[in-house]
Input
Amino acid sequence: MTMLISPELKIAGVKALVLRDLLRKSEGSFRRDWLQAKLGLNKKKATDLADSLVTEGYLQCDQVAGKNSEIPWYTVTSQGKQLMMAKASKRIDLTKAELLLRDFIERVHHVNSDDSYRCSVTKAVVFGSFLKGTAHIADLDLAVDLEDRLDPGQELSDMCFAHADRSGRHFPNITAQLYWPHTEVLLFLKARNRYIHLQPWYAFIGMRKEAGFIYKVLLGDKASIQNELEAPSKSEHPAVNRRVVSLDTSLEKSFLFRHLRLFHPWRDPGFQSGSPRPTWTAIMDSAKTLDPIFTSSPELPNRIATLFFAKQTNLGDAPPEISRCLLVETE
Output
């Protein structure tokens, strides 16, 4: 399912690899002068390039960000995001892919049988081109669901800090320590293999499925997983994801939910009940900072707010339609 590009390919007159790396650095949106500076272009050439990328569907004009700016802003489209994730590695044949899958399954069983890992794999699927019978594929698409292993009465943060400390590793910040139990397992499962594309479960459930989408369950209850993928919506409002029922459980395991379980102030014993609660804007900014999926799937943070924040958040700056949706769903 990952786009594969060749070193010779050009898009709008620019090498695809150069453009891919440029869009990755943009973090989803940028001004024309940023594009101009990064590629060393003059104003006219930068404008022509941006216009071409808009025409070809990789960018769209950002009317909101550019409203008060004399210099035009651009936002990366879903097609542009596919380019951002594109790979330039050679394709592999199905025989090699099958060996990679076999070894992956063995590593899953190893994690689940080894108590030194502080989370286990509860679900695993393979999907994408591997199942379509293509002679050669760009990568092996996999998704896993992880569950923390907590001792009776143990707090999640205590477990994470203790496990990080036992690892003997240097962590750049507290967040990296708190995510280490999950990161450790994901790194082990991926095994430094560039052909393994491993997604967290909530991303697999929430991603857009094309017609003819197929998957195979490697671990977990098949009927339950099918229900997650096909569950109907509880709300017809466009701001709420159409698969909110199936997303409820998965989103609780997302980086944002995990972050909030560990950090949000109302869990702090010293937090005063009358203290200001985080605003809608702060929540959305936090979501986009913590996990890039939220920049490409705006409906996910909306649903997260519905699930987690409705009775604990200052909704004063939330869009009116979102506020109504939250209030209705939490009555």
